[in-house]
């Protein structure tokens, strides 16, 4: 039976928890990603440009439909399959995985979880077919971790219209998205609401953030909203407080743990392959004790990460997964991932800093995965409050 990843990476056989049909489908997805997506990845990352041909390729794969089967092929997939799918995407290229995650998890997830049935039927079919691409505009220039209490973007109602003013930063897909989920504070009741803003709306401008050293393919934008008028029909009807917004983020935070696993798996695989092929002092460096020590430490991290994310998905599938458990998974896996990519880069020596050997890209991209969807410190405080009963938030 095909395996969804290099067996040496899944040392304890976690993929065996999938059904035969799921493993077969995942193997087909992996082959497609290797042949159709991977060849685009390095050059796009190097140029810091988005390869728009990837949209058609992801659409052909039916990627958004895996999460929303009612708008895809109608076949529901399990939580565990979805996790392995995320790992495979990130194993190929974290930047393109972020593009897909922002569109599918954050943008479509906002509409699916926070929109009315009429809004879901209006927007999600085209988004599932990737005829329209989504973005998620929450973070602000002066508000990252504290955006819940310090959101400065405002929404003022004027009859059947809302008027949005403010700025957003680090918005993935923001330079070209057709539909942007914008979060703003209602000036009347001080609660956070969500709005779907179409590309080209008067007063909406998006400028690409330049000079990034990580996730260079992702087109992050600085967004300015200057008297942007949005009809009431485009306000997400199920979003009435920041708790509703946080519910969308809670669903995606566990996904970042799988993201981290994908990056770590790829780092380990690249390092292992290099170790058995690179010859120094007359033999492969994989035969030296210090190299084996690095590889085994990486494999230990990867195996522990598998255990965390698989169990989290099992809990979510049973309706028992908590936000605190997702926070711990994110904090733990991204920390272990950071160690793995550093050890892999070390194993490559000087070759580890050039794109030709691929590990340099994963080493850099890991820094972004480590930071977004809640920093390690913020997720630590969420878990700390849960286990002590005391809030340590400033």
Describe this structure in words.
The chain is an alpha+beta fold and 394 residues long. It folds into 3 domains: 14-128, Butyryl-Coa Dehydrogenase, subunit A, domain 1; 134-240, Beta Barrel (Butyryl-CoA Dehydrogenase, subunit A, domain 2), CATH 2.40.110; 243-388, Up-down Bundle (Butyryl-CoA Dehydrogenase, subunit A, domain 3). The protein is 53% helix and 14% strand. It has 12 helices and 9 strands. It has helices at residues 20-47, 53-61, 63-67, 79-92, 94-114, 117-128, 147-150, 242-277, 289-317, 323-348, 359-371, 376-388; strands at residues 134-137, 154-158, 161-171, 179-186, 192-198, 204-208, 221-231, 279-280, 283-284. Strands 1, 2, 3, 4, 5, 6 and 7 form a 7-stranded mixed beta sheet that branches. The protein starts with 19 loop residues before the first helix and ends in a 6-residue tail after the last helix. The model has no long low-confidence stretch (mean pLDDT 90). Residues 22-130 form the Acyl-CoA dehydrogenase/oxidase N-terminal domain. InterPro entries: ACX4-like, Acyl-CoA_DH_CS, Acyl-CoA_Oxase/DH_mid-dom, Acyl-CoA_Oxase/DH_mid-dom_sf, AcylCo_DH-like_C, AcylCo_DH/oxidase_C, AcylCoA_DH/ox_N, AcylCoA_DH/ox_N_sf. Keywords: FAD, Flavoprotein, Oxidoreductase. Residues 135-228 form the Acyl-CoA oxidase/dehydrogenase middle domain. Residues 246-387 form the Acyl-CoA dehydrogenase/oxidase C-terminal domain.
């Amino acid at each position: 039976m095909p395996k969804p990843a290099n067996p040496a990476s899944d040392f304890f056989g976690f993929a065996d928890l999938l059904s035969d049909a799921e493993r077969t489908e995942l193997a087909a997805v992996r082959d497609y990603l290797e042949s159709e997506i991977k060849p685009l990845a390095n050059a796009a990352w190097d140029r810091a440009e988005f390869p728009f041909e990837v949209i058609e390729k992801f659409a052909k794969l039916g990627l958004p439909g895996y999460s929303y089967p009612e708008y895809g092929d109608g076949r529901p997939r399990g939580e565990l399959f979805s996790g392995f799918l995320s790992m495979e995407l990130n194993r190929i290229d974290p930047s393109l995985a972020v593009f897909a995650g922002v569109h599918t998890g954050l943008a479509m997830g906002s509409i699916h979880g926070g929109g009315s049935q009429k809004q879901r039927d209006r927007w999600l079919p085209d988004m599932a077919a990737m005829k329209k691409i989504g973005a998620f505009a929450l973070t602000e220039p002066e508000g990252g971790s504290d955006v819940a209490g310090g959101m400065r973007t405002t929404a003022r109602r004027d009859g059947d219209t809302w008027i949005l003013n403010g700025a957003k930063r680090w918005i993935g897909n923001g330079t070209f998205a057709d539909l942007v989920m914008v979060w703003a504070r209602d000036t009347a009741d001080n609660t956070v609401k969500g709005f779907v803003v179409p590309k080209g709306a008067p007063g909406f401008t998006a400028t690409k953030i330049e000079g990034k050293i990580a996730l260079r393919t992702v087109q992050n934008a600085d967004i300015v909203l200057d008297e942007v008028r949005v009809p009431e029909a485009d306000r997400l009807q199920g979003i009435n407080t920041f708790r509703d917004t946080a519910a969308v983020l809670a669903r995606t935070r566990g996904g970042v743990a799988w993201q981290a696993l994908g990056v770590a798996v790829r780092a380990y695989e690249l390092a292992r392959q290099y170790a058995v092929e690179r010859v120094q002092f007359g033999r492969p460096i994989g035969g030296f004790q210090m190299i084996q020590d690095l590889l085994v430490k990486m494999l230990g991290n990867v195996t522990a990460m598998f255990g965390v994310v698989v169990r989290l998905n099992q809990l979510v599938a049973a309706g028992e997964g908590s936000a605190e458990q997702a926070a711990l998974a994110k904090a733990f896996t991204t920390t272990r991932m950071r160690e793995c990519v550093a050890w892999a880069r070390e194993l490559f020596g000087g070759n580890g800093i050039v794109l030709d050997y691929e590990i340099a890209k994963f080493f850099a991209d890991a820094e972004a995965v480590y930071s977004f969807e809640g920093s390690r410190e913020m997720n630590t405080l969420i878990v700390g409050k849960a286990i002590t009963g005391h809030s340590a938030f400033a």
